[in-house]
């Protein structure tokens, strides 16, 4: 029996996919499952974007494209960044990738090795830690605390940096907490990073349009003092409801751009051509579809937060971004949030994810994705209420 190298024993998973599979298996047995587990918009990709992909296929875009992506798309990414943040980026440093995940995978692979320390948010997207461990680098969790509004604390983050720190991963708005790190805190963090010039920053801004109450996104692109060591992760998956298209973009600093280009040549050649034309239509076409989806997310956010706070033993801070609620379930009497999440699925058919799947600081919480209809969210809350009243 062939065996992979030892590094593969250290690679993790994203439990959301396991929950998705379990939920599908239960649904196949005839159970009525409400999936609040997976983090993907429940909307269809807007029609004009789908049409652009179909047109690209009809127009004969069937071959390889440049590994870094088609030129008009890289230009459109730079124009979109300028439109939204009044910041200039060099389209010659933009790489179109098959999903936001590929940027984090590549960045961590490029900078992680035994002896190197990589800071990442905990609770945070599980792939950060998994990939850090894969490379043999030392994962250093940055605690993300409810008491701090689920934001990064500049002071605590900076205190964890050592001469061995190679990479700092930031994520705001954040998965799984919905936390948004305030601009003042990012200002402080960036100022402090001046003393640690060896640290590269990977800013995962995949939820950069998912902010509520009229709040503006603070992009790390707005800080020229760290631009020469910033990797920016973004993409289309969440904003344009395109998770299955496998598309993303990233910006790389000098020194890391060419290795990234070569990795693309070696590993995936290019992102599939029609998807790139769809991405181009997403950026250059009407943006009202984004606003309509966001308005619906904002409406559901209110329903889910109010509903959760009415449940026994649960308290839920209002998330300021993304499309997740991260309620504190410590008061339910369940010692293990993972056990609570799996009991909820098995006994009530409501799929959620246990907080510990996002890191050790996730204990005592569960994650609900409100990328589901308001009607289903209300049904899920009612089932959870009945369950918690009967099984405190
Ligand atoms: N970054 C964060 C924080 C995410 O939550 C996700 C997806 O859930 C991604 C990146 C990856 O997105 P993609 O589907 O484009 O790979």
Automatic annotation (TrEMBL):
Its cofactor is pyridoxal 5'-phosphate. Keywords: Aminotransferase, Pyridoxal phosphate, Transferase. One of its GO terms (molecular function) is pyridoxal phosphate binding. GO terms for biological process: amino acid metabolic process. Residues 32-383 form the Aminotransferase class I/classII large domain. It comes from the Bacteria. Its EC number is 2.6.1.1. It catalyses: L-aspartate + 2-oxoglutarate = oxaloacetate + L-glutamate. Belongs to the class-I pyridoxal-phosphate-dependent aminotransferase family. This is aspartate transaminase. It comes from Ancylobacter tetraedralis.
């Amino acid at each position: 029996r062939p065996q992979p190298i030892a590094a593969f024993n250290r690679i993790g998973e994203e439990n959301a996919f396991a929950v998705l599979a379990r939920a599908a298996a239960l649904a196949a047995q005839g159970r009525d499952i409400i999936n609040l587990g997976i983090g993907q918009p429940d909307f269809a990709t807007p029609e004009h974007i789908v049409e652009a992909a179909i047109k690209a296929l009809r127009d004969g875009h069937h071959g390889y494209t440049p590994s870094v992506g088609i030129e008009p798309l890289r230009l459109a990414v730079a124009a979109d960044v300028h439109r939204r943040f009044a910041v200039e980026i060099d389209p010659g440093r933009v790489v179109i990738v098959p999903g936001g995940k590929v940027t984090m995978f590549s960045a961590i692979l490029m900078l992680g090795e035994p002896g190197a320390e990589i800071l990442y948010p905990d609770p945070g997207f599980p792939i950060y830690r998994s990939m850090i461990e894969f490379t043999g680098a030392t994962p250093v969790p940055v605690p993300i605390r409810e008491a701090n509004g689920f934001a990064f604390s500049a002071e605590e983050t900076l205190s964890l940096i050592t001469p061995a720190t190679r990479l700092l991963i930031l994520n705001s708005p954040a998965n799984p907490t919905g936390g948004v790190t305030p601009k003042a805190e990012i200002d402080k963090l960036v100022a402090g990073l001046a003393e640690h010039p060896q640290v590269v920053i990977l800013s995962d801004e995949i939820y950069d349009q998912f902010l509520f109450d009229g709040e503006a996104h603070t992009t790390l692109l707005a800080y020229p003092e760290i631009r020469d060591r910033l990797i920016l992760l973004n993409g289309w998956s969440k904003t344009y409801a395109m998770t299955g298209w496998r598309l993303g973009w990233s910006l790389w600093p000098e020194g890391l751009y060419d290795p990234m280009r070569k990795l693309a040549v070696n590993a995936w050649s290019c992102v599939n051509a029609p998807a790139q034309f769809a991405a181009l239509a997403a950026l250059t076409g009407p943006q009202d579809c984004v606003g309509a989806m966001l308005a619906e997310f904002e409406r559901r956010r209110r329903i889910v937060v109010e509903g959760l706070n009415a449940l026994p033993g649960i308290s839920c801070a209002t998330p300021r971004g993304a499309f997740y609620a991260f309620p504190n379930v410590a008061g339910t009497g369940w010692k293990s949030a993972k056990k609570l999440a799996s009991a909820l699925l098995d006994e009530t058919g409501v799929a959620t994810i246990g907080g510990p799947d996002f890191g050790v600081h996730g204990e005592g919480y569960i994650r609900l994705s409100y990328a589901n209809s308001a009607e289903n969210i209300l049904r899920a809350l009612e089932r959870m209420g009945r369950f918690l009243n009967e099984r405190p």
